[in-house]
Amino acid sequence: MAKPDPDALLRQGLARHQAGDTAEAGRLYRRVLALRPADGNALNLLGQLARAQGDLKAALALTGRAVALHPGAPVFLAAHGATLAEAGRLDEAVATLRATVAARPTDAVSLRNLGQALAALGRTGEALVPLRQAVALHPAAAEAQLALAHACREAGLREEAAIHARNAAADPALAGQAGFLLAALGAAPAPDRAPAAYVRDLFDQYAPRFDDDLTGRLGYRTPAALAELLRDSGIAVDSSLRVLDLGCGTGLSGVALAPFAARLEGLDLSPRMLAAARARGLYHALHETDLLDALPRQPGAWDLIVAADVLNYLGDLAPVLPALAAALAQGGTAAFSVEVGEVAPFALGPGLRYRHQPAHLRGLFAGAGLSVLAEQDCVLRQEQGQAVAGMLWVLRRQG
Ligand SMILES: C[S@@+](CC[C@H](N)C(=O)[O-])C[C@H]1O[C@@H](n2cnc3c(N)ncnc32)[C@H](O)[C@@H]1O
Questions:
Q1: At residue 266, what are phi and psi to the nearest 5 degrees?
Q2: Are strands 302-307 and 285-288 parallel, antiparallel or unpaired?
């Protein structure tokens, strides 16, 4: 029998890959590697399959090996840099992507990835350079337009930000996110909530760095503060309650809630945040869903529902509070934080989170049949050196 030809197998793998048959593509790439272990293309493509499946550890090992075996090859550098960025290894991503664009200055996707990695590191001024180059190379690329719009907003370049947000809005897939950014710039009315796709992408990107950033740099301690307020309100810490953690994120809130729970479930929009929560082994179940979709499906199901640093991604809480009340058993407890502001009923803040007016919220609680057990002013976190003012509430569903 003739020996299989690795080049032919690679071509077949690529054809299956492009047709969406990832299982067969992976099998063919592995056959190439069995015949030719240093085949950079097979390593790189297998790495891209792993990345698309969310296995960033495997993806990094594969793309990293392609780069190590073929140093300086721009295609492999580009894929490895993008994967490093997705894994939150931002300094390494910047170095790798800088090497990529040095070798291939017109690689608009790598320029965008470089700009986004720099922006995520807070190096906004530097980020503007590759992002502007990416947009100049491909003005129709809406993702680059949106990334540049965000970087401009962070750099205080509001007019330039609005121009690029409008350009991004031409793509129907990004119109919601671009419109949200325009609203934060004051160039469009604030929608009732942050688009789910915006929240999902934001937290998917943030997931690898979330815990370190929040508990370290940003001084976030809302979950512990809510747990303390629950205890002060007489909620027993005796592992007896059915507890739902809305917007559970990576599970920092689950850590604080576990001592109350006989059963602890979490839900979130972001698969990457949920994967980090799953890795803690704390939750009995985790669900990828929007809280506004999930709550109406669970009437009377929970003794305690908590939303730590979540309701600030929703503007209009009028539909949320009755849904929350209805998902509680009679006498059940809700606890959450909000960012506070003067404008009624809510306003979209510069950080793209909503601020709620406490007096308006108290009216909504009463309308939803929720009575106040405790409320507390607090500092939710630090942002650009400024304290973010918030409030914590503990409410009871009236019988
Ligand atoms: C700042 S994090 C807080 C995570 C966690 N509660 C904690 O205290 O660490 C906000 C989380 O809420 C999630 N989120 C925001 N809006 C949501 C919605 N409408 N439905 C479900 N999850 C949402 C986000 O995906 C994100 O993971």
A1: -130, 155
A2: unpaired
CA separation for the pair 55, 305 (Å, rounded):
31
Name the residue at shortest CA distance from atom 10 of ligand 1: 310
The reported pLDDT for the residue numbered 85 is: 95
Joined tokens for residue 40:
């950079």
> Average pLDDT for residues 221-237, to the nearest whole number?
96
Domain over 6-192 is classified CATH 1.25.40.10: yes
Mutation pick for ligand 1 pocket among 246, 269, 314 (CB with most ligand atoms within 8 Å): 269
Cβ within 8 Å of residue 33, ≥6 positions away: 39, 42, 43, 46
Q: Is the pLDDT of residue 23 over 70?
A: yes
Rounded to a whole number of angstroms, the distance between the first and last alpha carbons of the chain is 78
Enter the tokens of residue 118.
């720099």
Full strand arrangement of the beta sheet holding 261-268? 285-288, 261-268, 241-246, 302-307, 328-339, 386-397, 370-383
Write down the CATH number for the domain with range 203-397.
3.40.50.150
All structural domains of the chain with their residue ranges: 6-192, 203-397
Residue 351, pLDDT score: 85
Phi-psi region of 208 (alpha: psi -120 to 50; beta: other; left: phi over 0): alpha
**Ligand 1: centre distance to CA 204 (Å):** 11
Residue located via tokens 């309308």 = 367
CA-to-CA distance for 199 and 312, rounded, in angstroms? 11
Residues with CB under 6 Å of ligand 1 are 199, 203, 222-223, 247-249, 252-253, 267-270, 273, 290-292, 308-310, 313
Q: Which residue, among 140, 141, 119, 121, has the nearest Cα to 129 in the 3D structure?
A: 119
| CA 286 – CA 276 distance, rounded (Å) | 11
Q: Distance between CA 222 and CA 344 in Å, rounded? A: 24
